[in-house]
TrEMBL record:
Stated name of the protein: Glutamate--tRNA ligase
Gene name for this UniProt entry: gltX
Motif 'HIGH' region: chain residues: 11-21
Reaction(s) catalysed (UniProt annotation): tRNA(Glu) + L-glutamate + ATP = L-glutamyl-tRNA(Glu) + AMP + diphosphate
Similarity annotation: Belongs to the class-I aminoacyl-tRNA synthetase family. Glutamate--tRNA ligase type 1 subfamily.
EC number: 6.1.1.17
Coiled-coil ranges per UniProt: none
Amino acid sequence: MTKNVRVRFAPSPTGPLHIGGVRTALFNYLFAKKHNGTFVLRIEDTDQNRYVEGAENYIIDALNWCNIPFDEGPGKNEKFGPYRQSERKGLYKAYAEELIASGNAYYAFDTAESLDAARKDHEANGKTFIYNWHNRLKLTNSLSLSAEETQEKLEAGEDYVIRFKSPQDETLRLKDMIRGDIKIDTNILDDKVLFKSDGMPTYHLANIVDDHLMEITHVIRGEEWLPSLALHYQLYKAFGWESPEFAHLPLILKPTGKGKLSKRDGDKLGFPVFPLEWIDPKTNDVSRGYKEDGYFADAMINFLAFLGWNPGTEQELFSLDELIEAFDIERVHKAGARFDPDKIKWFNHHYMQEQHNYELAEAFKAEREALKDIDINYVSMAVNLIKERATFVSDLWDLSHFFFEAPKTYDEKAYKKAIKDDTRELLSELATLINTIEDYTTETLQTTIKGWITSKEIGFGKVMMPLRLALVGALQGPEVFDIMFMIGKKESIERIENLATGI
């Protein structure tokens, strides 16, 4: 790729960043880094009615947590700033008027009432109303009015919008990096509004102007923008600008595979759809986030990369650097990608194993009051023994509580299975044996206790099951001798005697 690659992620600050938006940002980031390019963040806040306080900061925080920070954007390397469209609104009207001057756009003075009446008239005749070549000369605009009438309306301060003049009887031949060649009949296109009566541009005009001025080379965005591709190509042509290359990512589907994953699906089905927790500033309603639910950013990124893309190999686990190296936009699928909440847990389990024990111990201590005064190195050793069974830090207590406190009760089924007529006598002998061990290590414990069991010519289960029950309170957990070493001789003997006494 010879040109300087520049891509942009352009979310609207209307609420928290949906997981689909994170996937779009990720694919832009991977593409940029693959080609030594620039990843730009632009905030598309032209719709001020839907602006939500705090949403922009949330977007930036989410990208940073995901380890896919922007190279250029609000407050950072502002080479083509400003990067908020609301701060660029002085730019757009001149470009809209340039299109009018070139005959590619026109003023439209239609009121909401007149347009509603036109729609109802079409519906009454079994037709669909489309504002375009078919009827624009019958409506109130600068194409149907004389130049003098148009000027009078403008000078009188009448409300107007500026519409793009779609061509008639043409076939557009477009290209998408994912979907290939696309043909569009211009007769089915409507004359989209480019500039609104409130003095703000629509997305269509603003994003074209900004992409051009910011020298964006590739537009990688969601499939929902595919119907706008024809207009955007025509706008580039009307301005006489070189068009960027376009790629439209497949939809992320509900876990059932039917319909687009929405913000409501997470609450309904019990999983987050946002990277970070979001508190609605108006209602104080809390929406769950992957970070707060205990997911690692690397796990989420690895999972999202496979929603619509695959490397063409059997490999599933990728570091971010490996994703950058492997990423190819042409390997992105056209079909929608089903969101699988269990798969992201699978990824998180893997990344749990990759975490440093000390870091996990710190996170574990931070969320459990009972560990506040426990030495971090001890907690780290315990984590090392049980983390292979954990998917989240929040799982660690249930898997390791016996390292920090003696069992208060015993699992009923385990008790019935482990306790026999001679168990009390065996446990008493075992406690005495353990008390004689001077070199109290995992290896010595294993050699001594197994040798004693063998010498008594009894089955290992007759001792090992009640021993585990005494230490843990259930027939689960890591290697018994590791537990005994960790909790120490005195505590091990006390737990064995506690169980023996209660039999």
